[in-house]
Amino acid sequence: MITVLGASGNTGGRVVRRLREAGETVRAVGRDAARLADAAAHGAEPHAADITDRTALTAALCGADAAYVLMPLDVTRPGYRAHQEQVGTAIATALADAGVPRVVALSALGAERERGTGFLETLHEQEQRLAALDARVLFLRPGLFFESFLPSLDAMLATGVHHDTIDPELALPMVATADVGDAAAAALRDPDAAGVRELLGPEDLTVPDAVARLGSALGRPGLRYERPPEEVMRAVLVEVGLPPDLADENLAMNAAFNAGTVWSLVGRGPATSTPTTLEEWARTLAPVS
Predict the structure, then answer these.
(1) What is the rounded distance in angstroms from the CA atom of residue 201 to the CA atom of residue 277?
(2) In the chain, which ranges are continuous DSSP H helix?
(3) What is the three-class DSSP state of 71?
(4) From the CA atom positions of the chain, what is the Rg in Å?
(5) Which of 81, 95, 109, 231 has its CA 20 to 30 A from that of 280?
(6) 0.90 cut: is pTM over it?
(7) What is the pLDDT of residues 123-168, one digit of tens each?
(8) Residues 35 and 66: beta-carbon distance below 8 Å
(9) Could you tell me if residue 42 is inside a domain?
(10) What is the Cα–Cα distance from 266 to 283, expressed in whole angstroms?
(11) Count of domains for the chain
C-alpha cells in the first residue's frame, strides 16, 4: 500500500491517479474529506488528516510500503516559517513513527542551499529532516511550475501585462505539475529509488517568453512582462492579499534566481527533462472568455 499526502492537490492528485492506473493500493490523504472525492472515485482509500497533526498522519502512514510527501503552501496564512516547521516536523516524525521504508518527497531546485533562497529555505530544512530517517528517500527537485502563473492569470488577461521581479533575460527550467506527479508515481513503484532527481521541464524559458507563449495558447496574443522595483511589487502582493512575510519570501526567492544562486546541479538530459510543453499545459486550462 502507498500513502499519498496532498492527494487533492496538483501533484498528489496526479500521483493517486497514476498509481491506481497501475493497480496499486493507495491511501489518499488530505485535510478536506470532500476534496478527496476524486481520489475515492479512482479507487483510493480517502483519509482525512490535518498536515500538522502527527498522530493523524501516523495513522495514515501506518502499513504503507512507500509514501509521497510534500509541504503544501497556504498563501493566505501569515507566519510562513513557523507553520512550515510545524508541517515538516509532523511529517518527518509521523514517517518515523509509522516506520515507512520508502519515501518520495517533493522539493525544489535550490533546496540544497541552506540560506538566501526565500521560500526554498524551508525545503532545505525538510530535506534534512527526511534524510535523517531510517528509510530510502528520493527528493524530487522540479524547476518553476507552470502553475505558478495561475494566481496572476486573471489580472494578466485583464491588463495584458504580467508583473514579477525575475530578470527578464533569465531563462529558467519550467515544468508542469502533472509531469512531476508522473515522476513521483513511477518512483514510488521503484524499490531502488533514492537520492535526488531534478525535473526541468522540456526547456528553459524566460518569463517574457513564457508569458507571450501562454497568451498565444490562450487566444490572447500580445501578453507581455514587466519587472517593477521590488518595493513596488511587494506593495502589490500585500494589496492583493499575500501576507507580508510571504511577499518577502517570494521576493527573496526571485532575487536568488536573479543572482544565479538557484540552478540545476545535473543539467538537462533524458533523466531530468519532462515532456509537457507550456502550450500543452495551457490547453488544459478552462477556456478563456
Answers:
(1) 7
(2) 10-21, 37-41, 54-61, 80-98, 120-131, 153-159, 177-188, 207-217, 230-239, 244-259, 278-282
(3) coil
(4) 19
(5) 109
(6) yes
(7) 999 999 999 999 999 999 999 999 999 999 999 999 999 999 999 9
(8) no
(9) yes
(10) 30
(11) 1
CA distances from 34 to 31, 209, 263 (A): 9, 38, 38
Q: Whats the size of the chain, residue-wise?
A: 289
What single-letter amino acid sits at 164? Answer: D
DSSP character at residue 114: S
| 178-192 per-residue burial string, b: 16 or more CB within 10 A, e: under 16 | bbbbbbbbebbbeee
What's the CATH number where 90 sits? Answer: 3.40.50.720
Report the relative pairing of strands 144-145 and 161-163 from DSSP bridges.
unpaired
Structural domain span for residue 97: 2-144+175-200+262-274
Query: What is the rounded distance in angstroms from the CA atom of residue 97 to the CA atom of residue 91?
Result: 10
Q: Do 278 and 214 form a contact (C-beta atoms < 8 A)?
A: yes
Q: The C-alpha cell of 246 is what?
A: 510571504
Nearest of 143, 140, 145 to residue 197 by alpha carbon: 140
**Per-residue 3-state assignment (H helix, E strand, C coil) for 7-62:** CCCHHHHHHHHHHHHCCCCEEEEECCHHHHHHHHHCCCEEEECCCCCHHHHHHHHC
Q: What is the dihedral of CA 144, 146, 149, 150, to 10 degrees?
A: -130
Burial code (b: 16+ CB inside 10 Å, e: under 16) for 260-269 equals: ebbebeeeee
List, for residues 231-270, the tens digit of each pLDDT value. Answer: 999 999 999 999 999 999 999 999 999 999 999 999 999 9
Alpha-carbon distance values, 254 to 175, 259, 285 (Å): 17, 9, 25
Q: Could you tell me if residue 242 is inside a domain?
A: no
195 C-beta neighbours (distance < 10 Å), count? 9
Residue 168 covered by a domain? no
Structure confidence at residue 52 as a pLDDT band (50, 70, 90): very high
